[in-house]
Design brief:
The structure is a homodimer. Chain A is mainly α. Helix content of chain A is about 70%, strand content about 5%. In chain A, helix 4 crosses helix 5, helix 7 runs antiparallel to helix 10 and helix 10 runs antiparallel to helix 11. Chains A and B meet through helix 5, helix 6 and helix 9 of A and helix 5, helix 6 and helix 9 of B. Chain B binds a DNA duplex (30 and 30 nucleotides) through helix 5.
DNA sequence: ATTCCAATTTATGTATACAGAAGACATTAA
DNA sequence: TTAATGTCTTCTGTATACATAAATTGGAAT
């Protein structure tokens, strides 16, 4: 399906000599497995409630249980899956409620970044933010805009000047990304998104922390516009695919 | 030292037959190792910056690398330790700046919880919050107050009603714990802390989200009162204890 | 003497083997 | 027919063995 899967598939064929050798800078078969499994969870290939059997997964990916275990443990640590006693791992149901809470939290983190940025951003950071914003101007292609949009947001985080906050927000962004994928990226949204960015940048440049925070909260949550859709789709997905919650 | 260590020690002596058999309901040697290692980190036995070598730990606890690895991976997932490429695991070193950023972030999370609690807490949650607050009344012993204080704050998180936020804040609390150790807990602080709690609870009960958030920000950051001390001591500590940053 | 290359050692990730406990299934007895 | 007990199979956790990549050290050459 994606490059990751094909790499892994390649690995199976080559009995992993290729994969093991391929390991560029970032080693970690388990890392790739983590992402692969996360991907499958998010796409619904492994639906909420489904069991994740170590042996099955190991066979499916053509690896031993060890890296699978590692990946599962890490997925468990970020609460994407849960371990039931003697029942193995299961995908934590991504309830609509949880998604809302997650995005609400994300919105607050971004608001925090915006507020800090308005108060403390250095000229250099503001310059980068502005540049990232300008790079979005006139972009029509949704995928391209999506990419540049992420860069803009990262620039915003960095303008907060709090390394710790930046790390945390980046991680949240990563965690939320799988679910964002479900969102329809309609072209009409691009214009309004860009307009909101514009306002946000202005507000930050004007050192209006409160307003910047509020605008960012709105901006992230406006995804709630299509959020209803997202939640609905997940709801259907859950209702349809769950075999038995048992 | 603690029961956990002694259990593990017992296990070493008995070549783990005892331990393996002891495994009441919650098996998991790795779980115990996780707690044991975290304990040692929190108490400062493994200070910030220290390396955690898999084989050393395995030998120290008399177990194989596997459960140690599992524990380390989990500690890494919650950012209590970090894995440096080819340098093994290490307890995240705490520069004064990073500590400030961390507590600032923590303060914002708590403020968030407080704000949400003021807006949405259920009567039951408020009741629990109030109970946790009352439990602190009149407590003189710093350690005991510290313990009850944590319970109060957890009750606050839970009153936010956002599961995701709760998880995140609890994780941050856990993450910050190793560094809190450095704080001097002076008895005089107890009274003012309690008074602040009192105000916070009142404000939340009055549904004043903005003010509750602000008071919590202050409350957590007042640790900044002794924060200067903390930072200073860490600064000295860093200067003195670090062998070579390499 | 300094630098570069090679070789040996160490560390880290993965595979596999093993053990113990829990659950399931079947058989027997009441 | 149902319940209980015993066995067998499966599953999960831990240990160990192995392979590879990186780092360090030593030697040689410039």
């Amino acid at each position: 399906m994606d490059t990751l899967s094909s790499i892994l598939y390649e690995g199976i064929i080559n009995n992993f000599s290729a994969l093991a050798a391929m390991d560029q800078p970032p080693n970690r078969l388990s890392e790739q497995l983590l992402e692969a499994i996360e991907e499958r969870i998010v796409t619904g290939e492994y639906p909420p409630g489904a069991r994740l059997d170590e042996v099955e997964l190991a066979e499916a990916f053509g690896v031993s249980r060890t890296p699978i275990r590692e990946a599962l443990i890490r997925l468990g640590s970020i609460h994407i899956i849960e371990k039931m006693p003697r029942r193995g791992w299961a995908i934590a149901p991504a309830s609509p409620r949880r998604l809302v809470e997650m995005f609400e939290f994300m919105a607050e983190l971004e608001a925090l970044c915006g507020g800090f940025a308005a108060r403390r951003a250095t000229p250099f950071q503001l310059q980068k933010l502005l540049a990232a914003h300008e790079a979005c101007r006139g972009v029509k292609d949704p995928d391209e805009y999506y990419r540049l949009n992420e860069i803009f947001h990262v620039a915003l985080y960095e303008a907060s000047g709090n390394e710790f906050l930046i790390e945390q927000t980046l991680e949240m962004q990563r965690r939320a990304r799988p679910y964002r994928r479900l969102q329809l990226r309609v072209p009409e949204r691009i214009a309004s998104s860009f307009a909101e960015h514009e306002e946000i940048v202005r507000t930050i440049l004007a050192n209006n922390a409160e307003l910047a925070a509020e605008k960012l909260r709105q901006h992230v949550m406006v995804q709630g516009e299509r959020f209803a859709n997202l939640v609905k789709s997940v709801e259907k997905l859950s209702a349809a695919d769950v075999k038995r919650p048992a």
